[in-house]
Amino acid sequence: MNAISRLSTAVSLAALMPLTALAGEVEVLHWWTSGGEKRAADTLQKLVEDQGHSWKDFAVAGGGGEAAMTVLKTRAVSGNPPAAAQIKGPDIQEWGELGLLADLNQVAEQNGWNELLPPQVIEVMQFGGDYVAVPVNVHRVNWLWINPEVFAKAGATPPTTLDEFFAAAEKLKAAGFMPLAHGGQPWQDSTVFEDLALAVLGPDDFHKAFVELDESVLTSAKMVEVFAALQKLRGYVDANAAGRDWNSATAMVMNGKAGMQIMGDWAKSEWSAAGKVAGSDYECLPFPGTQGSFAYNIDSLAMFKLSDADNRKAQEDLARTVLEPEFQQFFNQNKGSIPVRMDQDMSSFDACAQKSMVDFKAAAASGGLQPSLAHGMAASSYVQGAVFDVVTNFFNDPKADPQKAAQQLAAAIQAVQ
Ligand code: GAL
């Protein structure tokens, strides 16, 4: 029985049981609308409904969540935020400062969150020492997805270094395949940029550049090298990439049109939804040159203050459910991520997830664990936006100067601090 059918059995059994007296409604804002990600979101909806509550889906399409955040701001400004919203990283602090977030301390205490979660994660989920958000998963951003059949046809070797990556791209191109499936959207351009940065700079300088915003690293020769690599990589992207969604790019690798995709492991949600098996139908490789490093992207649901007691109960039940092992398993097996509970039994997860968990723990111990800039974990949304602008302008101009781009990067970051 797979996770979904186990879940529907649980749900149909629940339908026979009396509903709890305190049934409320939770409205949840997220951007998990691709086929695979929707399956993951549905697991949460079912578990919440299972407890007698009703789920109001507030899904706003658009990879990376920019559109969702715009809609959330409008709703919050009009005094009508949803019960829960996917808000991540340092942004949680910005919402906390507005005084809009609800305190989850009681749920956290009753369910031992302090013991379950890594300390770095706890810090992000709290505002002023109070829990205001609950983490759902850990995504890894520095992955390369390949179609082994296409590689075999092209005589290409799965790459472990940047040089090998470009050599593989060349072989794929020569054999008539699209070397790299990419979607030309700012957040996708910056996802690629950040993986190159992690490879070229290494985790320490990555941290200095994107967390400490250290000008000397932002303008360094290594950063110029990152932009130069991005320019070279751009040469392996097709002319129709502009505006393409990430899941359409995944589909191109899946159907054998393209050989590779650089994307976080939500890409795996599409492979899983299509019934493809990790290690045979597709392979997940740490992005070449970033073995030992782990750029993390933790999805989390921040909770807004509510006045209705039943809805508040539903909100607390949602928060509690998210960290229960059952949800952590169902959701993450569909979403492509790994559980945020470090004690989770990983035996029913696939090879990519098992590798991710091992790598996460090793990177946490070695200093290789770094927050993703492209996915809002490293710096404020203002810094993230400034980086997106510089990277995407550079990406779209094949003649752009890498040296100048590094200067522009530092200046753009400086301007929003
Ligand atoms: C990320 C988010 C992931 C996934 C991805 C593509 O920002 O954390 O969960 O949805 O965007 O939209």
UniProtKB/TrEMBL annotation:
The keyword Signal applies. GO terms for cellular component: periplasmic space. Keywords: Signal, Transport. Belongs to the bacterial solute-binding protein 1 family. Residues 1-23 form the signal peptide. The keyword Transport applies. It is found in: Periplasm. It comes from the Bacteria. Gene3D superfamilies: Periplasmic binding protein-like II. Part of a binding-protein-dependent transport system for a sugar. Its main location: periplasm. This is Probable sugar-binding periplasmic protein.
